[in-house]
Design goal:
globular; binds guanosine-5'-diphosphate; alpha/beta; 6 strands; six-stranded mixed sheet; binds magnesium ion
């Protein structure tokens, strides 16, 4: 499936980064266990009880209507693989290249995942230097108040430093998850519109 994805992505390369019919690839990044797949499943409308049937499905396509306009997002939950280490590096390099937008997820209950998020942001900036790609920093698991290790202010401050958007979500409570994906659509449009004028 990785190979078919590669072919498919190079097909659309000539149509700028956006694609003719408003198709955008959104790549989820972040440590294991922070909630990437949970967020992706909510986006795809997969119920938690059915999630097992969807294991292995790591790209989800959905058309959203935001501010009266339709946009199709392909959410890629491909950052983590169960493959060999060598393959993983390849897949992760690929992820860093193909996104039209990035969601960097950490868990507010896990400080090391917050530190990884910063590293991912730096890595992304290095790899996609000249491009002004939308990035959203996401502090997930906001429902776990008692286990919080990263304050909201820290997340917000980090986003300011890294020049990206910030939102806290709870995949468990479905809190702010739609807002997250709508936010991505708006970020993509802002950049598209400023290019046109
Ligand atoms: P991934 O490794 O980043 O794909 O993380 P998963 O989506 O597999 O989630 C890892 C674990 O955290 C699972 O047991 C989820 O049920 C749990 N989880 C994910 N999001 C939340 C959340 O917002 N709140 C709570 N309490 N648990 C969550
Ligand atoms: Mg996962």
């Amino acid at each position: 499936t990785i190979l078919s994805r590669v072919n498919w992505s190079s097909d659309s390369e000539d149509s700028d980064s956006s694609g003719a019919d408003c198709l955008y690839r959104v790549v989820l990044l972040g440590d294991h266990g922070v909630g990437k797949s949970s967020l992706a499943n909510i986006f795809a409308g997969i119920q938690e009880k059915d999630a097992n049937e969807h294991i292995g499905e790591d790209t989800h396509e959905r058309t959203l209507t935001v501010d009266g306009e339709e946009t199709t997002l392909i959410v890629m939950d491909t950052w983590e693989t169960e493959k060999q280490e060598e393959d993983e590096k390849w897949v992760q390099d690929y992820c860093m290249q193909v996104g039209n937008a990035y969601v960097i997820v950490y868990s507010i209950t896990d400080r090391s995942s917050f530190e990884s998020a910063s590293e991912l942001r730096i890595q992304l900036r290095r790899i996609r230097q000249a491009e002004n790609i939308p990035i959203i920093l996401v502090g997930n698991k906001s429902d776990l108040v008692r286990c919080r290790e990263v304050a909201v202010e820290e997340g917000r401050a980090c986003a300011v430093v890294f020049d990206c958007k910030f939102i806290e979500t709870s995949a468990s409570l479905h809190h702010n998850v739609n807002e997250l994906f709508e936010g991505i659509v708006r970020q993509i449009r802002l950049r598209r519109d400023s290019k046109e004028t």
